[in-house]
């Protein structure tokens, strides 16, 4: 089914403007889709095309991406700001409550928005694909040598020196040829052309990398001692999630390892896990049928 709907530019209070794909019946239950690095709202194209006859589907290019605002300064890309955009967007569109759906960094925003929005009833359900729970991820970075090794690219992305490498090589070459995110699946040529056009813009790349710079995650070097630091406790902002939550994981993900699933039940009370053996990190478009089926089952059982 082709993707229908239009790309609107929506001004949020505070001055941020987001480019947002909006489709589906206005009075249908709302699904808010968040993409991750280094993509755009089209990460979710197969799911939106599948669900837009029954749901109001809202999919922004998050700040820094596409033609959405890209303020200067990493502090503008902290989770508080990113979650603020999501809530402000819902308000701007007159949405009283929604299911949040996130992949990769969009999943990080979805975890945080769910924790902040569950009590008020603003966020009623969460569906998250290949995006680690923040407490579990930090735990693994301290204790699991494989996840720690796989995440060293985050340290490279935070280094201002990466900007010069991107300028010299281009983000596409850096990501696709050096395999910093592990082995990447073949991108659809039409989608890759859109992405490469976006990755060619230095200012946009700076903003995309600022998401990593603003993150509180600690990535110990590979040779640092394994184990939780003395006195370590997860951030008090990370609270147990009680809303129905679906976690989908492409098991061939080499950047965010499936070990992230193991400790998740400690933090998520109403959890369903859908493992997708044939997919890697980009499960929403690598395995659209499996992801659509998992979303269908979740949305109908938790309606
Ligand atoms: O979930 C996080 O805090 C980090 C997510 C992440 O590292 C995703 C990515 O590198 O693309």
Automatic annotation (TrEMBL):
- The EC class name is hydrolase
The alphabetical list of record keywords is: Hydrolase
The Enzyme Commission number assigned here is: 3.1.1.24
Residues in AB hydrolase-1 domain copies: 29-288
Q: Which Pfam families match?
A: Abhydrolase_1 (PF00561)
* Molecular function per GO: 3-oxoadipate enol-lactonase activity
In the record, which residues are listed under signal peptide? Answer: none
Q: Which InterPro entries match?
A: AB_hydrolase_1, AB_hydrolase_fold, Epox_hydrolase-like
From the UniProt record, list the coiled-coil ranges: none
Would you tell me the protein name for this molecule?
A: 3-oxoadipate enol-lactonase 2
């Amino acid at each position: 089914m082709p993707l229908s709907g239009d790309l609107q530019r929506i001004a949020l209070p505070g001055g941020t403007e987001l480019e947002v794909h909006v489709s589906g019946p206005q009075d249908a239950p709302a699904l808010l889709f968040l993409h991750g690095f280094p993509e755009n709202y089209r990460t979710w194209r197969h799911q939106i095309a599948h669900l837009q006859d029954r749901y109001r589907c809202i999919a922004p290019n998050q700040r820094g991406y596409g033609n959405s605002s890209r303020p200067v300064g990493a502090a503008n890309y902290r989770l508080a700001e990113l979650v603020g955009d999501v809530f402000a967007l819902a308000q701007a569109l007159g949405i009283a409550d929604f299911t949040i759906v996130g992949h990769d960094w969009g999943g990080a925003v979805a975890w945080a928005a769910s924790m902040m929005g569950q009590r008020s009833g603003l966020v009623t359900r969460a569906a998250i694909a290949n995006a680690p729970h923040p407490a579990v991820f930090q735990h693994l970075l301290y204790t699991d040598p494989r996840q720690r090794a796989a995440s060293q690219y985050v340290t490279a992305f935070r280094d201002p020196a990466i900007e010069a490498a991107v300028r010299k090589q281009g983000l596409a070459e850096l990501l696709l040829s050096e395999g910093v995110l592990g082995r990447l699946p073949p991108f659809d040529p039409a989608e890759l052309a859109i992405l490469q056009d976006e990755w060619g813009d230095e200012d946009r790349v700076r903003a995309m990398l600022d998401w990593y710079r603003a993150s509180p995650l600690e990535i110990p070097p590979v040779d640092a001692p394994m184990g939780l630091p003395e006195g370590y406790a997860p951030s008090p902002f990370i609270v147990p999630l009680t809303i129905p939550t679906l976690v989908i994981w492409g098991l061939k993900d080499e950047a965010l390892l499936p070990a992230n699933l193991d400790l998740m039940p400690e933090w998520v009370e109403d959890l369903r896990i859908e493992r997708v053996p044939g997919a890697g990190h980009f499960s929403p478009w690598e395995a659209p049928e499996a992801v659509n089926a998992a979303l269908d089952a979740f949305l109908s059982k938790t309606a």
